[in-house]
Amino acid sequence: MTTAPEIREPRSTTVTGRIDPSYKRSGGPKGSFEMAAWLFMRLSGIVLVVLIFGHLTVNLLVGKGVHGIDFGFVAGKWASPFWQFWDLAMLWLAMLHGTNGVRTIINDYAERDAVRFWLKMVLFAAAIVIVILGTLVIFTFDPCPQGVTTGLPDFCPAA
């Protein structure tokens, strides 16, 4: 009769339950930052649910629904500072929420300090670029640019 092979402890602990020194990560205590990040994820998630369902309601349920979304719809919506800040808050919170989540995944799965560092640098750079570009699009969007006479939508005065 054969016996089943022994199941070993997870790689991060030894038989005594202590953390194996080869898997300890460098750096001091990060408790207060991690607690703030944890709290941010919960609060931003709640706010994002409200922002996203408001966005979906206005875009898909009010008016012509999905068939009414076109360049003119977006131009009319972004003509209002309320909707500019609504979409800006949604963009910023979604990017920060997602970036924090991916940062947590990188911390959990990247074993080497250098790999973890560079993955997070790429993540932060991508998040910063997307937030900056998205903010510029929201606040500099002009459906009827001055001096252009051709190719404008029907609602522009010069068209």
TrEMBL record:
Its main location: membrane. Keywords: Heme, Iron, Membrane, Metal-binding, Transmembrane, Transmembrane helix. InterPro entries: SQR/QFR_C/D (IPR034804), SuccDH_FuR_B_TM-su (IPR000701). The chain crosses the membrane at residues 35-58, 78-96, 117-141. It is found in: Membrane. This is Succinate dehydrogenase hydrophobic membrane anchor subunit.
